[in-house]
Amino acid sequence: MTLWTASDAAAATGGRAIGDWSVTGFGIDSRGIVPGQMFVALKAARDGHDFVAAALDAGAGAALVSRIPDGCDGRALLLVDDVQTALEALGRAGRARTRARVVGVTGSVGKTSTKEMLRHVLSAQGKTHAAIKSYNNHWGVPLTLAAIPPDADFAVIEIGMNHPGEIAPLAAMARPHVAMVTNVGPVHLEAFDDGVPGIAREKASIFRGLESGGAAIWNADLDVSDILATHGTTSFGQTEGADWHLTEVRAGGDSTTCAATTPMGPVLFRIGAPGVHFAMNALAVLAATHALGGDVARAALSLADWTPPDGRGARHRVRLHPDGPPVDLIDDAYNANPSSVGAALALLAATEVPGKGRRIAILGDMKELGPTGPDLHAGLAAHPAMADIHLVHTVGPLMASLHDALPADRRGEHTDDSEAMSAHLRDMIRPGDAVLVKGSLSMKMARLVDGLKALGETGPKE
After folding, report:
1. CB-based contacts of 393: which residues, under 8 Å, 6+ apart?
2. Residue 147: partners with Cβ closer than 8 Å, 6 or more residues away
3. Residue 286 phi/psi, 5° resolution?
4. What DSSP string runs through 342-366?
5. Residue 457 pLDDT grade (very low, low, confident, very high; cuts 50, 70, 90)
6. 21: DSSP letter
7. What SS3 state is found at 208?
8. Is the dihedral of CA 239, 245, 248, 252 positive or negative?
9. Domain boundaries, the chain
């Protein structure tokens, strides 16, 4: 399906189209370009213009550039003054022309999982668009908006931040009909002088971008909920009096059963993954579905077969021996902060293990916590879930603080990086264990997930 023609893209950006072309989507990595996509030559760690020729050779329908790269004379290009500015213009134009009802998602933890949950639920009710990856920054949001099909019924936009002042302009670009703050926690502390309250104000700024009459959905269970309530219209949580009130949560081996009272009356629903944090996200998803004009009962049914994506709580069975019980591997390796690590530890602690199976956590550094980082890492030793976790292996200089704070009988291996830890994997697990892998993306904890999978036959958890 054609998404942008040369003339339409040139009109949206004020640029000059070279050639008569059309594109079906967007890509920013020449190595993974899909034929027909527009390659966007962003300048980040490297200048994307250096890879335009390779992207076009790989089948890109055109390239968005601010200069004609060597070897690209006469090829399909959209020439603009500045690539980032033009991408933002395409994003605004994509948002303006679509009929889709748009929901914006932000939060310190679980943005991508909630986005994927919304995609799953809304896809059963209409044509739904959301970014495949965690595209939530200054280039990810316009890229997602520019790729919305004009005939989409729903669009889900994930909005993140690292510093103050980032969310409001992205929300203004997205112009959501529904915006939600899933939660607020100690993330990116080094950028906020007043800590979590400052983060709450930044997260609440998503509500400034709402379309007239839009719904602002916020978490009522937080110490900073009063900051969100100043802007919000609809609350959710376990707190008495929340508009969408989670009254019961029972996490089993492979699912979570929930009950809630809502403006529509009582609702029962089941999620196809265990975890109280998923229950909270699901409740927010039901509230958003209602605000979008969707069918809440149908959405509740759809939650039963939702499972988290790889790196964000996906579960796998690794069978080390044909006759022994499998290892239950929890892949939460994409990112980490004190709130999300606490939720993951609680999930591991609630995981049933057979016979002599153990609950084992392999934790990597949580980044961007500023001078409080070592204390926040050490503080995990006192998390209530630790009482039901048998062994904790740690990776990175910050996690050394947790390693030192753990009781001797729970203190596992400690290494400076995930590559060094990978050498210990075969000796660290045995049949029947439940293993959590979690850490900030830069710690490359996914290497350990891949290493654990490689030890045996692997399949999704049934």
Report:
1. 360, 361, 362, 363, 412, 413, 414, 421, 424, 428
2. 3, 25, 26, 94, 129, 131
3. -65, -40
4. HHHHHHHHT----TT--EEEEEEPP
5. low
6. -
7. helix
8. negative
9. 4-82, 98-305, 314-460
Domain 98-305: top CATH class: alpha beta
Tell whether residue 111 is among the known ligand binding residues. Answer: yes
CATH class of 4-82: alpha beta
Task: State how beta strands 178-181 and 154-158 pair.
Answer: unpaired
Other beta carbons less than 10 A from residue 29's beta carbon: 12
State the DSSP code for 24: S
- DSSP-derived secondary structure for 265-300: EEEEEEESS--HHHHHHHHHHHHHHHHTT--HHHHH
Angle in degrees, 0-180, between the axes of helices 6-13 and 83-97, rounded to the nearest 10 = 110
Q: What pTM does this model have?
A: 0.83
Residue 273's closest CA among 289, 248, 251, 288? 251
| Percentage, residues of the chain above pLDDT 70 | 98
CATH number of 314-460: 3.90.190.20
Residue 184 labeled ligand binder: no
Pairing of strands 234-237, 244-251: parallel
d(CA 122, CA 128): 6
The answer to whether 166 touches 202, Cβ cutoff 8 Å, is: yes
Give the pLDDT confidence of 16-74 residue by residue, as tens digits.
999 999 999 999 999 999 999 999 999 987 899 999 999 999 999 999 999 999 999 99
Is 113 annotated in a binding site? The answer is: yes
107 is in an annotated binding site: yes
110 is in an annotated binding site: yes
| Contacts of residue 157, Cβ cutoff 8 Å, sequence gap at least 6 | 102, 103, 104, 105, 130, 131, 141, 144, 145, 174, 176
Return d(Cα 344, Cα 336) in angstroms, integer. Answer: 10
pLDDT in tens, 128-182: 999 878 889 999 999 999 999 999 999 999 999 988 999 999 999 999 999 999 9
112 is in an annotated binding site: yes
Residue-level pLDDT at 208: 95
Work out the average pLDDT over 257-284: 93
Written as six digits, the tokens of 61 are 């329908």
Is 373 marked within a binding site? no
428-448: per-residue pLDDT in tens?
999 999 999 999 999 999 999
Confidence of residue 462 (pLDDT cuts 50, 70, 90): very low
